[in-house]
């Protein structure tokens, strides 16, 4: 279940990037790839969640903040 949440969340981000900032497309692709990798390593699902929903979102936030800084 945990890898599938990363995959479907990535698909949602990829699709919503058409209507919002384009940076969501790359975050969505990263989440999809991370979910596919997590399918191979089921026992480390929590660590993939930490990377996907934690680390990558923090990095994404810094990138967007620097890019759209007023």
Summarize the structure in words.
It is flat and about 45 Å long. The protein is an all-alpha fold and 70 residues long. 80% of the residues lie in helices and 0% in strands. The chain contains 3 helices and no strands.
Q: In a few lines, what is going on in this structure?
A:
The chain is mostly helical. Helices cover 80% and strands 0% of the residues.
Keywords, please?
mainly alpha; 70 residues; 3 helices
The coarse silhouette is flat
| Average pLDDT reading | 93
Please provide the ordered H/E string of secondary-structure elements. HHH
Instruction: Report how far apart the termini are.
Output: 40 Å
List the uncertain runs: none
Strand content: under 5%
Helix content: over 70%
- Class based on secondary structure composition and strand pairing: mainly alpha
Give a quick account of the main beta sheet: strands, pairing sense, barrel closure: none
- Put simply, the count of helices is 3
By DSSP, the count of extended strands is: 0
Instruction: State Rg.
Output: 12 Å
Detail the topology: elements first, then pairings.
Blueprint: H1 2-16, H2 23-40, H3 45-67
Helix pairs in contact: 1-2, 2-3
């Amino acid at each position: 279940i945990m890898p599938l949440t990363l995959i479907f969340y990535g698909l949602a981000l990829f699709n919503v990037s058409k209507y919002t900032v384009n940076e969501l497309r790359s975050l969505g692709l990263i989440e999809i790839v991370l979910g596919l990798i997590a399918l191979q390593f089921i026992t480390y699902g929590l660590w993939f969640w930490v990377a996907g929903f934690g680390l990558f979102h923090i990095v994404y936030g810094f990138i967007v903040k620097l890019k759209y800084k007023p």
